Protein 1
Amino acid sequence: MSDPNLLDYQHRRYGMDHERYEWSMLQDREPVHWPDDKPLALWINVSVQHFPLSGDKPTVAPPGALTMPYPDLRHYTLRDYGNRIGIFRLLEALERHDAQFSLAISGALSMRYPKLLKRLSQTAAEWLGHGWNMNAIHAGDVEEAVEQQWIQDTVAALSEFSSEAIRGWFSPGRIQTARTPELLSDAGLQFHCDWVNDELPYRFATENGGLVCLPSSLELDDVFLLNQNFHSEDSYAQQVIDAADFLIAEGEQQGGRLLSLNFHPWLLGQPHRIASVRHILTELLVNRADKIWNAQPSQIIQLAMG
Amino acid sequence: MAKTELELYDYASWEDRPQIVWPGGAKLAFWVAPNIEFYELDPPTNPHRKPWPHPFPAVPGYSIRDYGNRVGHQRQMDVLDKYGIRGSISLSAALCEHHPEIIDLCLERDWEFFSHGIYNTRYTYGLTEDEEREMIEDAMATIEKAVGRRPAGYLAPALSHSDHTIDLFAEAGGLYTCDLFHDDQPTTVKTRSGRPFVSIPYSLELNDTIAYVVQKMEPRRYGDIIRRSFDQLLLEGATKGTVMCIPTHNYQVSCPHRLRAFDEALEYITSHHDVWVTTGREIAEYYLEHYHEDHVEAPITAGGSS
């Protein structure tokens, strides 16, 4: 006899096997209508990250994590490149088109690079909490008090620079502990972007009030395609444009759809990659301007969820 | 005790095969096998295999698989509808309980349902023979109750097997297995009960998850290898009669940046007239009726059945 639990099915029932959200298929819901009845909403997020040179390695390594023995100068400085140069190349490309976007920012950057955060506060971007730094991973058995501190410190640090209250949260590596949603709700946050199970925002239950999940696509994430799957820059751009065209066609038939992109300054801000960003933005924001509503996360949530 | 050989089939060289002619004189039998799976967020620990790479809750792995059912399923179904292809579903039986809406959509289209175990987070590893028999029967009975027909085929959950898996499935009334990757034609499989039983070519090479997750392919390359595979199998099908399968997952192939490549590959395949577009069960039944005896070199006797 093996472990009797192996054939014991505690959650075999209608719907999900947990209580975080209701089961439903995208295509079966009431259609969402974006402004001017455009079929596709475009959410661009830029993840502005700090990868510490030292400190304990987290339970789960986030994409882009340092990998070498201390001092891992090669990865530390390559990530830092994003905050010195890459972000400004992305801003130049985005601002040229008056693009709407959000910024998910490591809280620790408020202390390390206040000059950068002041510059970012001059953009029209919506700010999202992105963890204290890229070692502060909300995963596994991290102590609740520690996790709570990371969230509170990050929200407080970003609030000092942002003219608007911080409403959204994007966990480093899109991973959570079993308590992260409760802690986000406790901290007054209204939505997170971590569960990639949908293409429209949906209600996400916690013990102390509801959140919204606004899924940020991992499968189209720049780090996933370029850094982890080794796809070419041209293929990355092609995949983004193919996704937009597919979703525009589906949106015209079935109701508003959402394309979410996540840009990392340390990756896309490299000189050989920035032209792909410009190409994507031209294709989406100029050549498909009549089909695409480019908006910030809170605007998308408000329209999609009423 | 590990055996060196399970003696499931006889050796047969590709140079020396009796010709199979498919219905209507077709050279190639083509089938698409969408895996429609349910992965549990918190399955019991199986000492032989970890279900998730991340600690609980494994948000990245769980949420993208949930995306397949919430978003991807209907997209893939629309593409198969477009080319008149009936899917042969590799089904986690518990999905009949969790998501009956998906079962109903497939029933309306007269798709085939074959067994893929109870959950894709429950492995054959560590089960006693009686427990594995119970699990196989549970899956067969659950699917039969939901769809009105006992499954004919089996792909063991998460491709986890024991020495007895194929014997037990044949004894439960199954006709074919998808677990063997040794051939491009159906192969008679020797089981201890001596029941007529075949292996139907499934494919790991064309499996979207192997292509996208393991081999990290760009979508258009995936479409290209599907077409190359088809061209060769159709050529050889003229003298041998071949089978081609595309196994898919609604969380991989149905992503908006990937569907175009799949759509174009199916358009190419179904534009040929000498192809039998069919299901796993129909291939197994046709082979067993017309060719099975030719390929049985020695009588198979029952033995060892408990």
Note: Strands of chain A lie at 40-48, 102-105, 126-129, 168-169, 191-192, 202-204, 211-213, 257-263, 292-294.
Protein 2
Amino acid sequence: MPAATRAKMARRGGRAAFAGLLGGLMLVTACHPDADLTDTPAPRGPAAYTPALPANLPQTIPSPTRNPLTREGVLLGRKLFYDVRLSGSNRISCATCHQPDRAFSDGTALTTAGASGRALLRHTPALQNLAWATTGLFWDGGATDLESLAFGPLTHPDEMAQNLAALETELGAVPEYAPLFEAAFPGQGISSVTVARGLAQFQRTLLTGNSAYDRWARHEPGTTLSADETAGLTFVRAKCGACHAGETFTDYGFHNNGLDSADAYTDDHEQLKWGRARITNLPEDKGKYRTPTLRNVALTAPYMHDGRLPTLEAVLDHYHDHVRASPTLDPAVVMIDGTPGIWMTLAEKRQILAFLHALTDTTFTRNPALRE
Amino acid sequence: MTQNSFSSRFWRLIAVVLLPLVGCEKTGCGDGPVPMGQPVQLQFSYVVGDDALPFHLDSTYLSASDDLVRIRHLKYYLTRVRFQRRDSSYWISPRLPALVQLGRCDSVILGLVPAGDYVSVAFDIGLDSATNFSTDQGYDLAPVHEMFWAWNTGYKFLLLEGEWLGSTPSSGIEYHIGRAPTLRTVRLPLPAGTTVAANASMPLTVRIAGRPMTIFGGPHVLQLRFPRNRNAQFDTSDALLVADNYAAMFTLMGVE
């Protein structure tokens, strides 16, 4: 600190004291003792668990080492997911907006079902195959993992509006929770940390891979796709696969698909409309959002990060007719002559729609293990 | 913080402090206790002005830019406490990050520092990148302390909330500072002859003064009439100024 500045600061402080605003002795209290860095979670605990995985999907579930998947953790997480006590008002659960019948989405563009009744600024995303979403969650990738994500909807005043300390107290007073937490997280108690970890474990089991397409792709006996469906698959692989890639039908990446021109990326709501750039602070990320999977896409209307497109037909119309140019527009939605958009005939639109419906997995949406 | 976890932490501390002493007795083999060390704590007090009068939350002070301000909340993460020897080697505390909160939690207990002569103490304000990757962590990193961003994962290294009284009604001041570029190291020379004893049961207390008003006027004098100087988040250019300032707010008062 420069001497002049230091002297000036001292003078200011002296004047403050002169103002007669000080007095009495400082309250000095000891901090809580902290644990050593070697204080890793206790080795005892439930056995690791890997749910059955469809053969055409990744064969491992990457979990943080601090929160490995266990049956007990998943069961606890499922109970928490459907429990309205997780909200401040005790009226809203995770499932209020993440409904199994809709592949854990809500059918609403910008929901008003939260604690305040105010419309959210982004569309409720579907929850499916997030076990492999290791590049960031939320539409802009702002959450590093499912564990850290949980505190967003839990505490946001327009969502569940929960005070985390109050949540710990409230759940601690529910007798049936104590054995469930102990079984899932021995010795770790009921805390917002174990709540988040249980919720994350349950969400990692929201796995979908048993649609008509999947059975056909795995060459299961008696499964076929129609001519339109296979033609639609071919189109999607060729023209949409840059982002809706592979068997997960998402690259879990971030792209600008031409919803807006650059002048839409305003600073309103703490740069909310910057998309991915709100997190990275990189101009080249403006207007980019996380690629949603195409799986169960027929169940997850409306579409896009703000739910602006009500139907799959509207989505195809967007890609064909309404892609807007901007400096960050993804090359995958630009035609070879430089025209924004993806060319498709009416027949191709019909085929694409047929294929997208073949990605509906009712064994997922009706799976009793994933429901309340 | 649940009763159980507090109790668990209390006994863990007792174990950390006592176990090495028990070990001395077992391994002494008639040659007397093996020199081990001494419990050490950092004791923070907060002062203002030439006379180092006690600083109080919710009181009104004049900043370096002649702005009347009131600080309502001030807390920060303190990590990687190091005691350096004359030969530049150092002992680093194995403790998890400590959340220091003005008015609530003003001391950091380090446990047993190895016996020897030390020339300086250093610590970081902030968290390393590995720790800062996720927010479902316990102890002083627990989410109930509300020192994290939920929409953009990471911890706030320092949180200051208060008011600028230069407008009617007053305007809020909100510094929520975090991310790697805002991590700051504070290094304070210890008085000559500072020695950590072997097998002393009484803790050595390192008394450190913090001057919260320096956050508005350390190396950088913040003109609080400008909104950008009243609201700094993450590691923006304004936040980096705040970080430089809070790194300059500590001085060593003594060791006893």
Note: Chain B touches chain A through 70 residues (CB under 8 Å).
Protein 3
Amino acid sequence: MLPAMKILVIEDDRSAVDYLAKAFREAGHTVDCATDGLEGYGLAQESSYDVLVVDRMLPKMDGLSLIRSLREQGVATPALILSALGQVDDRVKGLRAGGDDYLPKPYAFSELLARVEALGRRKGAASKGEATTLAVGDLVLDRLARRVTRGGQEIVMQPREFRLLEFLMQHAGQVVTRTMLLEGVWDYHFDPQTNVIDVHVSRLRAKIDRGSDKPLLHTVRGAGYMVRDSAR
Amino acid sequence: MTALGKLWRTTAFRVTLINLGVFVLFAIMAFGYFGWNARRIINNEIASTIDAEIKGLSEQYEQGGIRRLASAVEQRASQPGASLYLVTDFTGRRVAGNISALAPGVLDRPGSYETNYQATDEADRPRGRALVRVFVLQSGFRVVVGRDILERERLGAAARRTFAWTVMMIVVLGGLAGLLITKRVLRRVDAMTDATERIMAGNIGQRLPGSGSGDEFDRLATHLNTMLDRIGELMTGLQHVSDNIAHDLKTPLTRLRNRAEGALRLASSPDDYRRALEGCIEESDNLIRVFNALLTIARLESGQSQGGMTEFDAAGVIRDVGELYDPIAEEAGAKLAIHAPDNLPLRGSRELVGQALANLIDNAIKYGAPDSAKGAGEIAVSARRAAGGVEFIVADRGPGVPESERERVVKRFERLESARTRSGFGLGLSLASAVAKLHHGSLVLEDNQPGLRVRLTIPDAPAT
């Protein structure tokens, strides 16, 4: 389904590293590990990875300096920062240092996996993100005309529904978690506590999958949602 | 460190030494100038006396030649005083005068000299010093007129002695004073060092001593003590928060454990185990959410999260959040009515204000929606400009919160008895209140007759 990615995990907690490596491998990816900042920096510079998963607090060289140094060296590998600090300003600092995503601890692995896969894909298809039309199966979204059609039939959408679908289709074939949706579509980073996102998604599903025997918007249990052409 | 080393390292002692050096240098300059000037004046005086003598003697010589000169010299030389005379013939033999010998070579050339001499009547005394002027007459006779400079030398010696004394007094008294000051400073600093060492050793209640004189050390001690008080307050606050978190997390942790234990005891098929494990994951996800919410509240309450204050449109935020919750409200049989001006600029944290509003609206939907079909419960959400900030109001038509309970429900994990059966952790209002507190605003619960009205006031954050 997804092409396998090469992931570098830089984290000083041994058991966390082992768990992450095992879980990423089960998801079909290749994983290298480093347990301190310098080792991680060396690995990230030497070989090419699709995604870096960097703990913020590391011995020898902290995560933010590591990413900053890599960016100065011209290494543009997408990096996800893991941190015990989850405040807005911490996130801003992390992204400013050159990180591409920020996930506060404790986190669910499904969330981490979804975000890492989104980052890895972004690297592979940076240009695709700017395409003017997105298509999954017979569902077509025209970003310029702001029009959505399914099998040639136009579907009328509210602006927010359009953006929700746009975000899901940009990540077609990938798991998109509820927090990713809240971040990407509403630009909030808090935990909504209730099933607000689920309600929005089910409304969207009612619009695009209604009367179709081939649903495109799938719920991934315990993780989130995915837009995927089930026929393929 | 030796006592001397310690002394040497104090600023007070070094300043004393530098001061002493400066004073000694000043004394040297003052006395040097005085000595040089006095010597010059005396020399001038002697020279003019000699000039006058020469004038008188040359008159005698012009009137009566060498003979008259010799007798005049003889007569003058016999009078007491510091004047010196000598007339010699061309062989250097003394003809008249009170000098018996001069330093060798002085008589050979005319001119002014400062030289040693021996007086005729004081042959047994050591040689004196004099300023002399030597003339050579046409006949080869030499005339020497001079003046003893003993007075000048005495004056010089007296000046040197005074100078030596002065310097000695400066060094001794200044040094003593410096030592005393240094010792005093050291004593104060040592007292402070001891106090800080005791504080570092764990005696947190200890404070720095003051002498009560209000000097700079007292001021420093007062400031440091204020700082220690503040640190103490923060530590107590932190302790309080971590105690609370530890306590608050015990409940969901116990639930998680019970669930796992129950599964171990009762499950009989792989399906049962799978369900139990899924239940545990769900429970721990809840735990993570509670933990994150608690951490956020704790950090907001400690005032640590000062970053992220920007200018944003509060009306936009209220519309966004309203739109986010609109479908849920609809499903719950309520209706969200949003009243806000087109544009409502506010300086603060967009993220946190959004989260607080989300929590308030979520609460209104959960607890404010009518259970029975008594008509659609309207939830009125509004924002308006109020003194120095923005006032948000979320009002529902639900059962409301009794006045006696209003203070309690804002606290962490506190919920109304009637709400216990619903989902939620009882952290929503606490978080909204913490957001208000961080912005120096307020969260007030009021009666909506019927229902609950929550008034969240967020003043503009000061521009940074």
Note: The interface with chain A takes residues 278, 281, 285, 288-289, 291-293, 295-296, 299, 304-308, 320, 323-325, 327-328, 331, 349, 351-352, 354-355, 358-359, 362, 366, 423-425, 428 of chain B (CB under 8 Å).
Protein 4
Amino acid sequence: MSDWSKALSGFAREAGGGAGNRGLEIEEHLLFEQDEPGRTGVDLPEPSSVPDRLGGMRRESAIGLPGLSEPQVVRHFTRLSHKNYAIDTGLYPLGSCTMKHNPRLNEKVARLPGFADLHPMQPMATVQGALELIDTLAHWLKTLTGMPAVAMTPAAGAHGELCGMMCIKAALEARGEPRRRVLVPESAHGTNPATAATCGYEVDPIPANARGRVDLGVLKQKLGPDVAAIMLTNPNTCGLFEDETLAIADAVHAAGAYFYLDGANFNALVGRVRPGDLGVDCMHINLHKTFSTPHGGGGPGSGPVVLAETLARFAPLPWLVHDADGFRLVEQNPGEAIGRIKGFHGQMGMFVRALAFMMSHGADGLRRAAGDAVLNANYVLARVADVMTASYPGPAMHEVLFDDRFLEGTHVTTLDFAKAMIDAGFHPMTMYFPLVVHGALLVEPTENESKAGLDHFIAVLRGLAERARAGDADYFHAAPQLAPRRRLDETNAARKPVLRWRPPTKVAAE
Amino acid sequence: MRYLSLTDTNRAEMLAVIGVPSIDALYRDVPPSARIAGPVDLPHGQGELAVERALTRLAARNVPAGSVPSFLGCGAYRHHVPAAVDHLVQRGEFLTSYTPYQPEIAQGTLQALFEFQTQVALITGMDVANASMYDGATATAEAVMMANRLTRRRKAILAGSLHPHYGETVATYARFNGFEVAAQPPDAAGMGDPAAAIDAETSCLVVQYPGFFGELRDYSAAAEACHRGGALLIVVVTEAVSLGLVKPPGAMGADIVVGEGQSLGNALNFGGPYLGLFATRDRYVRQMPGRLAGETADVEGRRGFVLTLSAREQHIRREKATSNICTNSGLCALAFAIHLALLGEAGFSRLASLNHEAAVRAAERLAAVSRVSLMTGTFFNEFTLRLPVPAAPVVEVLARRGVLGGVPASRFWPGNAELAPLLIVAATETNTEDEMDAFAQALGEAIR
Amino acid sequence: MSIVKYTSEHEWVRIDGGEAVVGITDYAQTQLGDVVYVELPERGRTVAMGKEAGTVESVKAASEIYAPLSGEVIDINASLGDEPARVNTDPMGEGWFFKLKLSNPAEADGLLDEAAYQKLVAGLT
């Protein structure tokens, strides 16, 4: 049998090297490796020979794009999709990410031509329904958070953080107080200090206390007339509610600083607690977390920022205004608005999806969803606390944090444990974040998970913990064995980065 | 509620296991004064039919661009997206998956990103591209900050060809990140010499190609002037389809190419979500922000893909990161990649030719309207007309007559008398000759 | 006769008269994991004691390299561009980072000697 035939029929795998198909899981080469010159998957009319107006700027060389037919392209991406785990596949317990169900109603309404086929620069009279939708979503966000204003344009959570910190900086400049420092808990998501630094601030970390919360004593010590803001997450990244939040708000405000809340964990609070009641000045909301817009393999997101009265006038352009003439966008403003932070008006496609989600749940449903998210996390905690080491005593909020003390002496690391979960059919939880505990494992089941699904997940966690403590480290080191790929060499990928396909160089003629 | 899988029986069982009487008890760390007693003042939940009805009603109050003759550009372009694209991106494994942090079970996303990166590098004529950014405007701001890091200078020159939203975004970032922007006035005639302003403090010159007013210019000389002055040339492409027909920015000597990828695979969506393209030279790759998919092998020697060079990113570098960016525009990038895979070399260049042809025909008809003149000599699929009257009211009249006839420059620069009569018009493969006739007719009537 | 001293940031410095070679210690490379990239200061650059002089990256972390002493960078280990793994396999030898011409050799008195550094590491592990 030829090598090619062997490879195709799976013999190569048995021989211990090379790739081969395995039933439904099919090896798929790159698009560029399937080229036939001149082939295309789109039928377009022949251009006529009208004299061009390119001014000599016509491309002279080929681009090098491969030509495939439509069936080939459909197969290519279908096969690729088979290699992905997704929410639709199973529980995706990534702490801090809120991997909740992505309803298909959202996809349907977002694709209505009356939303999807609108050009951003159409005359405003022709897009009143779209502007009203944005206004309605803004109303929901303000009501749920108890805040008077909202900036809708940020394209993602981190972008929302940037927007919020820019508003704070502008407000301080308007006050004539160029404060230089921003306080950020050590448990914070990396985007927080990165955002502060992008705005030119010096980042001053606050440690966690023994209860996993921000150390109020240290915080008060660090406050001073040069502190611009604190960036807090609540519930925090350890899955705990920052119960001293009112005292924190008071201390921060007394020092003349602003209270920024990272809203990534809003799923625990939505419909039950309003950040506005906690003294928050500014908070970004991740529509792709709390409000179910799809993660799409990494994006796009949407990060509207709710603002207190003191910050509202600095919100970036454009502003959406509703008056007797209807809805319109204010696109230029000599006032104190910080200017644009992106093109056009915001992530309209995500707005439609988020509003559909909110309308489907309603105020009552959102409250119930938050409660179920918290219930599910605490159930997991209660059922594995005897075999895994929870970092802090409960109750947890919507996510629960474990550390690697339960793996001590087993030669199994958090990473190894996670890879073994893959073979058991689960996407691992968030690992090694937050940094305040060793070998963190952060579990967030979300509200959609059934009790039976959780019980299955818990059984796997218990089984793996037992197996590690029984000394079967080899099993964990070899994991995963059943996924489309086994462990990949990330070291070499970073040492000798290959970031694109290149055509094979022709060997020079002898 | 149909998305919640727990029943009341389940809840009771689970609470018993946890050892608390109610879900409210789990919120005991929340100060009582901050807990709201009941649902907030918003409507109750509704079934699918009701929600669909309500949103369909809202949608019906808009005029979809495809329902009338539409000739709008200015950084967002209406192209035909093949049906297969939308079906593929809605596969649950793409739609509902996350950032590929566990590469063993994310090879679909990672390989697609690797292919996307290759496509972007190829069409821009550059060495390497990232896995996308939020949009063209933020990609431009990130490119300027990258140029600042590389040159250790803090002044960016923005040419008059740059999309005003992009320029405003860079200016906002400049204000807060602490660098300087020298923005040249809008260059409707396409005659400006932006490179003349380069000095010893310039980190980069940012030009747009094709320009905001439509003009196609060769920036090779500008690249040389930048390099002589120790600065970088950043070329911004807001219409990705143009790269199917025109000389690529890489061939002109660009150091960084950024732009907007919406034109391929993605609907207009009233301005978002879009995707920022970002490409550069090999030697600058470690300063490039955003995600990167890289090729490697697994322990069995099989080729696979991983996110790489992550040490630059926020989750590791925190305050020293190249950017605070966390998401890319994953699903939009996938749609771009699928569309371009379907087009291939032959289809992409044909699509671009059809766009140029449409614009040439549209320009001829519109310039033939009495007292209307064409300002742009060389263009791809967008050009600027000079009307004998202010363009903004004309556009309103056209809309009432059922034609979305271009964008008035005054929408971006109100109060600028020189630009008031200018109308920016785009034509794509979706515009028929009948539509062009209808536009020309309506325009003639509107300016009488 | 060269002497080796250490900083609390886990750099070592081998001082020979008015010149010194700088690298990171075995403890540091273990903490970092596989080194993938080292960003070194340019030849001719002046560095100040305790200030940032470069970066060393692994897959999962990135750390600043601080100049243990003040001086001018007279040589850098260009082989690390192709072979960053040397930092892991031979951190005190072939994994060196850069060589300085010292502007103030007396600064070395403020650094840790072998015993003091080992004590520091023992306290961390």
Note: Chain B touches chain C through seven residues (CB under 8 Å).
